[in-house]
C-alpha cells in the first residue's frame, strides 16, 4: 500500500499509462546498489531517489574535489573534502524522506561486495575504472544480480543491461580494456544525459522490462545521435563462458 504522502509525492508518475500503483509498489519494494557517486552516480541517484526506490545503497571511496564539480551534481562547493558518500546521503535525504538511503565510504572489492550488494535487485555501474567493474561482474555472475552498465569516453557514451547468463557480461565487452591514471575528459551534461537514461532503464527493469538487454545504446553527444546495437556473449569469455 502507498501512504497518502506517497500518493501525493508520486502523483504525476502514478497517472502514467502502463505504470500506476503496481509499478510504484515494485519500486517501493526494490533495493538498488549504486556503485559510485560521481558523474553518472549523480543523475542515477537523483532520479532513483525521486522515483521512490525503497532502498538505495550507495558506495563511493572518494572525497569531493573542486575538479569534480563540473559534473558531479550530488555535491556542492561546501562539500569539498567531504566523503562523497556523506554528501550524497545529505542531498538525497533532503530530496526524498520516504525512502531508505544507506551510504558507504569505502572502496568496493571482492571481500566486501557480498555485504554491500547481496540484498540488491540490481546494481547500477557508475564507476570509472575497469578493476572495480570486474568486481561487480564476478559478483553479478555468481549471484545472478544484473548490472546496469554505463560508461563515458569523451563525447561518446554507452549503456547496456548485463544480466548473465541471459546476456553478455562485463568481461564479454571489455576483456581487453585496462585502466589508466590519466584524467578522462568529460562534460557534465554528457554524464547527465547518460546517467539519466541509466536511471530510466533501471526503473523500467524493476517495473517491466529494460530496452537495453542484449542491446548496447551508443550515444554520440557531439553529433547528437543515438544508436542501438545488438550485443552477444563472447563464447570464449574468461568470466562467463562456463555458465
Ligand atoms: Zn562474459
Number of strands: 8
| Spans of at least 5 consecutive residues with low confidence | none
How many separate helices?
Answer: 9
Dominant shape: globular
The residue-averaged pLDDT reads 96
Task: Walk me through this protein's architecture.
The protein has 243 residues and is α/β, with parallel strands linked by helices. The protein has a single domain (4-230), classed as Rossmann fold (3-Layer(aba) Sandwich). 35% of the residues lie in helices and 19% in strands. It contains 9 helices and 8 strands. Strands 3-2-1-4-5-6-7-8 form an 8-stranded mixed beta sheet, with helices on both faces. Helix 4 (41-51) links the parallel strand 1 (31-35) and strand 2. The protein is globular and about 50 Å long. The chain starts with a helix and ends in a 13-residue tail after the last strand. The mean pLDDT is 96. Bound molecules: zinc ion.
List the SSEs and their pairings.
Layout: H1 4-9, H2 11-14, H3 20-28, E1 31-35, H4 41-51, E2 55-59, H5 84-95, E3 100-104, H6 113-117, E4 122-125, H7 130-143, E5 147-153, E6 156-162, H8 170-174, H9 188-207, E7 215-220, E8 225-230
Parallel strand pairs: 1-2, 1-4, 2-3, 4-5
Antiparallel strand pairs: 5-6, 6-7, 7-8
